[in-house]
């Protein structure tokens, strides 16, 4: 049995999740064929996985460059804010910015890292001005030169050792 099996998940559930996270548009019939179940049984399992929260949401991933978002930036942020209410305001501000694809609270030298999709240098400058207006102590921006790997798939079907 897979060491990653969670309470309430069996190997077929993990296979379903693995297939769906790499191809969410697969038909139920094809998914059923791949996991060796009947289509009704597969549909029931998928609905249960959704209802139990194992499937968070299904999205379409767009091509950033084709849509003109030519700069992918990682922005490291330090702040002197320590009061929970003010941190919540700051985090809500990050979450409300459409350019921010991801925001993570960090341990270590910086307090936050933002993954930001920007069209050009002018938009980056405007975005940095927006950040500066939030009372941030220190900002370091790194531009992604080349994407080596991008995945949204979790490694749930690792081979057993």
Quickly list its features:
4 strands; 4-stranded antiparallel beta sheet; 161 residues; 5 helices; alpha+beta
Give the helices and strands, then pairings.
Elements: H1 11-22, H2 28-35, H3 39-51, E1 71-78, H4 84-96, E2 100-105, E3 112-118, H5 121-132, E4 138-143
Antiparallel strand pairs: 1-3, 1-4, 2-3
General description of the model:
There is one protein chain. This protein has 161 residues and is of the alpha+beta class. 36% of the residues lie in helices and 17% in strands. The chain is built from five helices and four strands, in the order H-H-H-E-H-E-E-H-E. It has helices at residues 11-22, 28-35, 39-51, 84-96, 121-132; strands at 71-78, 100-105, 112-118, 138-143. A four-stranded antiparallel sheet has the order 2-3-1-4, with helices on one face. Strand 2 and strand 3 form a beta hairpin. The protein is elongated.
Short characterization:
The chain has 161 residues and is an alpha+beta fold. It has five helices and four strands, in the order αααβαββαβ. The longest helix is centred in the N-terminal third of the chain and has 13 residues, at 39-51.
The N- to C-terminal Cα distance equals 11 Å
- CA radius of gyration is 20 Å
Order of helices and strands: HHHEHEEHE
Task: Give the strand content.
Answer: 15-25%
Low-confidence stretches: none
Question: Given the structure, what is the number of helices?
Answer: 5
Roughly how much helix do the residues carry, as a percent range? Answer: 25-40%
Average predicted local confidence, pLDDT:
92
Oligomeric state of the chains present here: single chain
Class of secondary structure makeup: alpha+beta
Please outline the major beta sheet.
Answer: 4 strands, antiparallel
Going across the biggest sheet, name each strand in turn: 2-3-1-4
Strand runs, count: 4
- Principal-axes shape call: elongated
């Amino acid at each position: 049995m897979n060491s990653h099996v969670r309470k309430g998940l069996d190997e077929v559930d993990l296979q379903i999740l693995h297939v769906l996270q790499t191809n969410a548009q697969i038909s139920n019939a094809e998914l059923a064929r791949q996991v060796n179940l009947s289509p009704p049984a597969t549909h029931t399992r998928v609905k249960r996985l959704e209802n139990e929260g194992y499937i968070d949401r299904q999205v379409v991933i767009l091509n950033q460059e084709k849509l003109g978002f030519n700069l992918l930036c990682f922005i490291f942020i330090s702040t002197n804010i320590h009061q929970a209410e003010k941190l919540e305001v700051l985090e809500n501000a990050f979450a409300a910015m459409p350019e921010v694809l991801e925001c993570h609270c960090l341990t270590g030298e910086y307090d936050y890292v933002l993954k930001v999709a920007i069209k050009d240098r002018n938009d980056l400058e405007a975005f940095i001005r927006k950040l500066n207006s939030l009372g941030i102590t220190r900002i370091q921006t790194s531009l992604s030169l080349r994407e080596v790997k991008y995945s949204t798939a979790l490694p749930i079907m690792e081979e057993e050792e």
